Amino acid sequence: MIDKIILNYKYLLQPTKQQRSSLWNILQSCRHQYNEGLELWNECYECCKIGLNAFMLNEYFKDKYQNVYSQVKQNVNKRLETSFKNFFDKRSKYPKFKSKNQYRSFTYPQSGFKLINDKKIKLSGIGEVKLVYHRPIIGKIKTCALKLSKTNKWYAIFSVEVEPDNFFELPNNKNTNAVGLDIGIKTFASLSDGTQIDNPKFLVNSFKKIKRAQRKLSHKKKGSHNRKKQIIKLAKLHERVTNQRKNFHFQIAHWLVNNYGLIAVEKLSPQFMIKNHKLAKSASDIAISQFFNILTYEAYKHQTLVGQIDPKNTSQICSKCGKIVLKDLSVRTHQCPYCGFVCDRDINAAINIVDRVPDEFKQKYNFLRNGTVGMTETLTPVETSTAVFESKDLKSSVVDETGSSLL
Ligand SMILES: [Zn+2]
């Protein structure tokens, strides 16, 4: 359900004088090849109205520019092909000849490069070039691009594909705080340390507007002009909410990865979806998986772990004694008849979520669980009107939320 993620890792190269000149020569060969390919393209098109593709160009350049690794050459042709494709799809202007200033990189698409002991990179046609490996690469390397910056420095940029399945196997950052996160509807998210993140007011208001617009639409006559107008109005509202929500998701994800080293979430499963469907009339499961995607993406960028755990019974089990305390969705407070533990329902779930993190991580991380957190940190609300608050005092938080008594 969470897509593969492509990330770019950029490292400074420290080439010798000789390597520097090889890199430069290859770059210029690629540029010449690109310009020659473009010229050929123009000629062919002018005389017989035939466009060229990368395959034809590969054939043409097979025996030319011998100093360049074959796959790098093919990648140049691919680049030209893409330029034309973008032009024909009206995404960019007609491809132009490139000057030295405009052509600054070449790419090894699959092979021809190899990292050696995290200190050097072996490049076909260049040799072993020193590289400053300032951060570890997570995931599978797909391509390696070499880029000359405007300041005349060479960089290796690895494009990495990340499988979001084995989140727990990633190296961790210095933050050793682990937290569980429960996604809710009334409250957007509850954390095992007692923090709750409310849905922002603007989203709630927008949802109300959408409902109203939908109701209006249902009263319009089918096929009428007014109905059409109302449909457009509704579509615009939807678009606005989508954007607002996305921004909100990014802000929350950002805040989370900056504050925690490990974030445990529930694995999105049919069971999870059903639980949330019942709760949600406005929020869709698409929005939830979008948030998880964004969180995962932000987490990889900050080297924070996001771990998915089995969501079974996370809201029913008492996080203190482990017994099952059945409650339906309207019951917002977990109150354990066995051990007496009283807690907001979602925070109880969040504690269960963080407790399911595999043992090997339990030694490395401090588990931020409700009641065990020593400090009360006041959270600055994110720029929007998002209400973010930390509730060490559970009772008041529960009363705040429901506005009624605990039972
Ligand atoms: Zn209990």
Indicate the percent of residues in helices: 40-55%
| Largest β sheet strand count, sense and barrel closure | 7 strands, antiparallel
Number of helices: 10
> What is the helix/strand order?
EHHHEEEEEEEEEHHEHHEEEHHEEH
Structural category: alpha+beta
Distance from first to last alpha carbon: 37 Å
Shape: flat
Low-confidence stretches: 279-283, 372-407
Strand order of the largest sheet: 2-6-7-1-5-4-3
Radius of gyration, rounded? 28 Å
Strand content: 15-25%
Number of domains: 2
**Number of distinct beta strands:** 16
User: Ligands bound here?
Assistant: zinc ion
Mean pLDDT: 80
Explain what the structure shows.
The protein contains 10 helices and 16 strands. It is an alpha+beta fold and 407 residues long. The chain folds into 2 domains: 5-162, no CATH class; 167-402, no CATH class. The strands form 3 sheets. It has a 7-stranded antiparallel beta sheet with strand order 2-6-7-1-5-4-3, with helices on both faces. Strands 8, 9, 10, 11, 12, 15 and 16 form a 7-stranded mixed beta sheet that branches. The chain has a two-stranded antiparallel ribbon with strand order 13-14. A hairpin with a 3-residue loop joins strand 3 (113-116) and strand 4. Helix 4 (201-219) packs antiparallel against helix 5. Mean pLDDT is 80; it is low at 279-283 and 372-407. The structure holds zinc ion. The site of zinc ion has 8 residues, from loops.
